[in-house]
Specification:
This protein is of the alpha/beta class and 213 residues long. Helix content is 28%, strand content 21%. It is built from seven helices and ten strands. The protein has an eight-stranded parallel barrel with strand order 1-2-3-4-5-6-7-8, surrounded by four helices. Helix 3 links the parallel strand 2 and strand 3. Helix 2 runs parallel beside helix 7. The N terminus is likely disordered.
Length: 213
């Protein structure tokens, strides 16, 4: 992959790993995650899923976030994020030309083996601020609790010129080991800190952030 800022891999190793708490659906969970030290908050824009929020719900929460916490809208196709007007779009497919160049892009890849990485990483746009490496699941895009193969993720860190966000099956119990094995720029958690789909366990969120940082 070309055109992405070099040197991210080294910084990912020598600086503190960032944290993205995903699938936020309400203001109480959002502010709790912020208080715990989250750097990014994720909002699901995929209809007919248990953690889906509408554009209006997203704005009601995002408008209450303090400066410095970055909201990310997660969608299947990048065009689905247009109604949200979010500053960062995390997506699985689609033509990125439909969103303004001021919007930051965070594509998701779900490699089944190391051999998949060169092609998947090459498919990320040059304006991407990072690449999310998630676990492959035959029917679900994310939030399935399946643990990503950390050997594959570590190889992605080695090969990619963009920062790697590690997702897939992370919990307060395994995230420290994941960071040590992969050295990602950031970690991304959803179901691993929930008490039920779409509702966070605030104690688990705190434990997760502490384990990372």
């Amino acid at each position: 992959m070309t055109g992405v800022k070099p040197g991210w891999q080294l910084r990912a190793i020598v600086t503190m790993t960032l944290v993205k708490i995903c699938s936020i659906t309400n203001i109480a969970d959002a502010l709790s995650a912020v208080d715990a030290g989250a750097d990014y908050l994720g909002f699901i824009g995929v209809p007919n899923t248990p953690r889906y929020v509408t554009p209006a719900q997203y704005h009601a929460i995002a408008n209450e976030l303090p400066t410095g916490v970055k909201p990310v809208v997660v969608v299947r196709d990048v065009a689905d994020a247009v109604p949200y007007g979010a500053p960062i779009i995390q997506y699985y497919s689609g033509d990125t030309a439909v969103v303004p160049t001021s919007v930051e892009l965070l594509p998701v890849i779900r490699p089944q083996s190391v051999d998949d990485l060169p092609q998947l990483l090459a498919g990320a746009p040059t304006r991407a601020i990072g690449v999310v490496v998630d676990a492959y699941h035959p029917t679900k895009l994310g939030g399935a609790g399946v643990v990503t193969d950390w050997n594959i993720a570590a190889e992605a860190v080695r090969l990619s010129s963009a920062p790697i966000f590690l997702a897939g099956g992370l919990t307060p119990d395994n995230v420290a080991a994941a960071v040590a094995a992969v050295h990602p720029f950031a970690v991304d958690v959803s179901s691993g800190v929930e008490k039920s789909p779409g509702f966070k366990d605030h104690d688990k969120v705190v434990a997760f952030v502490v384990a990372v940082k």
